[in-house]
Amino acid sequence: MDKKGKSKNSKQSNSGPKEKNNASKGKKNSKKQKTNKKNDEAVGDGASVADLSDSAESRNLAYVITHVDHRTFGEFLSQPTPIIFKILSYLPHGDLQNCARVCRNWQSLVPTILEKRFSYEWFYAGSSATDLKCLPERFAKFSQEIKIAPQLILGFEPTEAKFPTCSTCLALNRPDAEKQKGQKQERCRCIKNDFEKIYQSAFPKTPAGSFRITSYGVISSYLGQFHTLYTTEDNDFNQTTLLFPNCEGLEISSHLFRQVELNNLTKHALTKILTGHDHAVKAVLIYVTDSSLSNYSLMNNGYSLAKHTASILRQKQKTPAVSMGGGVVKKIRDTMKPNVSYQAAMFIFRGAKVSAYSTVIKEKEASEIATTIKNVSEKIKSMPGRKLCFMTECIDRQSLYVSDNMDLVCNLESRTLNRFLPGIPIFGFWSAGEIGFTTHDETLENEEGRVKVAHTFATSFLFLILED
């Protein structure tokens, strides 16, 4: 009897800690269920990326893999948790849509991420409420477009090995890119009528008169082809060094304005800069920093710089044909004074044998860009004794067509350029807006409408043409 009693007592005493452990496990499980419910509710309500935790761990998929049991990893990935929402949010449009095929939960997350991404882009671009109402239609249209091969958009054969799939990525990943930055010889290609003759132009190691312009983080495919002409400042922004070609008969003058100088810049002082020269102004390239946009007075001064330039040249010059281009960028610095930041920069192109052409593409369609570059190249090619020596491109078609679907836009622009304007030096910028012209029907012979300046969310081009 005593032994049985002792055994009963021992069982009762051993059952105590087990019940405590079970109780603690139950509390932990209930906490996990509560957190999972909160996460599901957050994602179900369409929580934005900014509302989620912004820790380094949440961005790193390796952290997730190492901290989750591999037996339950598949279940973890299939749950619409905030961290999965965040991981998917960093994907471009094409990869994101492919993720919708993984499971049902991911299929429900993809439209939420895309909807918020589109809403933010259109709000940032300053679109009206009517544009926001068109989001579902634009989303459906874009979904169809990204499924089409970029080669087919421009009429290229998919098997054409002459052009790379993504020239920007190839240029950025080339191992000899760093070696070529310090070379004294910088290749400057000026294509003749036959588009074959190549010229060499020498630049010093640290060229005087070069300027660094920091763009908004997405490098254009044009600039990617000439990878020796830019340096990456940090992970967020791309810093571009402008090295203008040393072509005979082309004269370039630069004028940089600080905040005080821009505020006190009068029309009379600007007239002195633009006039009083042997040769007339043929083209003007203007960049204004984004700090000008944060201050209304500075923004007005920066934008009026382009407007006053156009009006002065129209009144003072005998030949009113002048082309203008430019955009809103992050920083402007002189290479000789790297610690000095400027509010605006103006580059003036003169020369007796110099002509220019500029245009703004308002629409965001692929056919617009291909048609514009094709028409300009055909006109230059048909002119006897003309060559295209320089071209700038400012792009602000929103991340809808650039950062979120880089393959599409890289193929689009680089393939078009390689086919119609092979080897031309291009300086490309991702901008917050363009300063250019609004007319689409400009021709190289028609001088009408070349002083209409507009700040648009589009793509602007400036072509500089030389006579032999």
Automatic annotation (TrEMBL):
Residues 1-46 are annotated as: Disordered. Residues 73-121 form the F-box domain. Residues 25-36 have a biased composition (Basic residues). It comes from the Eukaryota. This is F-box domain-containing protein. GO terms for biological process: positive regulation of proteasomal ubiquitin-dependent protein catabolic process; protein polyubiquitination. Gene3D superfamilies: 1.20.1280.50. PROSITE patterns: FBOX. It comes from Bemisia tabaci (Sweetpotato whitefly). SUPFAM superfamilies: F-box domain. Coiled coil: none annotated.
